[in-house]
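USER:
Before I trust my own judgement here, I would like a peer's view. Write it directly below this note and I will take it from there.

ASSISTANT:
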Amino acid sequence: MALLGRRFDDAIEALFFRLTGVRPLGGDPQALWAVGPGRHLGRAVTLADGTIVRPGDPILEVHFRRQALFPIFEQVEPARFALAVAKLLKREMPLLDAYLDRDPRLAAVKAIHAITPFHEVAPHFGFEVHPLPTRLSRWWYTTWQRGIVRRTHPLGAARLAGRNPLTSQQVWMSRARLRALWGPEGTLTRRWRLVHPAAAEPGEAPRP
């Protein structure tokens, strides 16, 4: 049943990416993120730095790629999974900034947006957490993403049964904040270089 569930998730993910034009970040088949341009469809959102994302404004949608997570499950013991993913996220944040800077079609993007059950760690990377706008959307995304976690994460069932079960939330980061934190001279980019001095650029860090 677990294998059947994973194949179902794979098929849905592939169909979703095909219909929405979402692609792996930078065309890298190992990228943790798939990204694609979109339009904000909900009510106006005011971010901490004063950026206002209004209905219809261009945004960049970000999605975790399940296929990129499976090699981590195979190579890293479950207790260190979160650290391994965090390391790769730090590697990809500067790539996200470069991707937005490089593609003229994305010049008008005001913010980066994702819906995730792992929003508790998002502030460590500069994202801010916002609730989903309606009870129905909260129920739908939480139910769907819990199912994916259960079938994908080695400790998924245990994580869902914990004292604080996963619930899905929105995470946002303005384009200006992404540049300030993860641009070529961004605050967190410089910190990354201090920790990984052997890498000329964050995007060149070796994978675990």
Remarks:
- The first helix runs from residue 2 to 20.
- Residues 202-208 have pLDDT under 50 and may be disordered.
